Structure to design on (74 residues):
């Protein structure tokens, strides 16, 4: 398939609601980032949604306490 088709499809599948979330992962475990990259690829999510939790100290603390990823809606 030509790249224009995939660009069009991704644009149609990505809603404004999806763009209002951020997914934070634990940067100390590279597996989380790899899994999130795969999810973004297969679910047509923009990679701009994925952030290291260390970029936000309060997010990092909450993530460490829950021992999980965090999904934050803005």
């Amino acid at each position: 398939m030509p790249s224009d088709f995939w660009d069009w499809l991704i644009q149609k599948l990505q809603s404004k609601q999806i763009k209002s979330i951020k997914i934070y992962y634990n940067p100390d475990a590279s597996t989380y980032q790899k899994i999130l990259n795969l999810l973004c690829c297969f679910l047509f999510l923009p990679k701009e949604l994925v952030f290291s939790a260390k970029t936000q100290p309060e997010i990092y603390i909450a993530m460490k306490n829950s021992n999980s990823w965090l999904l934050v809606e803005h």
Summary: The radius of gyration is 14 Å. The chain has a mean pLDDT of 82. The beta strands are 21-25, 50-52, 70-73.
